[in-house]
Amino acid sequence: MSQEITIAGIGIAPEVLTAIVSRAVEEVEGIASVGVKDLATNLVSMFSTKSVPMGEDVEAEVVDDKLRLTVHLTVFFGYPFKPLAEAVRVAVANAIDAQVGVEVECVNICIDSLVFPKE
Questions:
Q1: Buried/exposed 4-30: b ≥16 CB within 10 Å, e otherwise
Q2: Which family, according to UniProt (predicted)?
Q3: N or C terminus of the chain: which is more exposed, having fewer CB within 10 Å?
Q4: Which ranges of the chain does DSSP label H, i.e. alpha helix?
């Protein structure tokens, strides 16, 4: 996402949508991060209030005045993907509705990376 998203007469920077989605997703058990990051970036995220640039971790488009999102995730091994994806969809839709006030048409989930426990 490089261009501002315009919906319901509001221009929203892609970084703002990424921040809203990231905050919502961090509350879902089983999610390591939005996007694929190395261990150092994850540690900075956990111990800092500064946001780390996310790149194309959250994609957004407007379709018929509704927001269509694609969220790229790194998940922890051991959490079944289907229930995890549904929990993320609900969390993201609720967060966008509460913060932005626009309807979310869909939230597509891409599981791009898996974190395994140390053995």
A1: ebebeeeebebeebbbbbbebbeebeb
A2: Belongs to the asp23 family.
A3: C
A4: 14-25, 39-47, 81-99
Measured distance CA(69)–CA(89) in Å, rounded: 10
**Whether the predicted pLDDT of 94 surpasses 70:** yes
Domains: count for the chain:
1
Q: pLDDT at position 37, please?
A: 65
Contacts of 79 by beta carbon, 8 Å cutoff, 6+ apart? 29, 30
Give the pLDDT score at 117. 80
For the chain, first and last CA: distance in Å? 37
**What is the spatial distance between Cα 4 and Cα 11, in angstroms, rounded to a whole number?**
6
Tokens 């006030």 belong to residue: 101
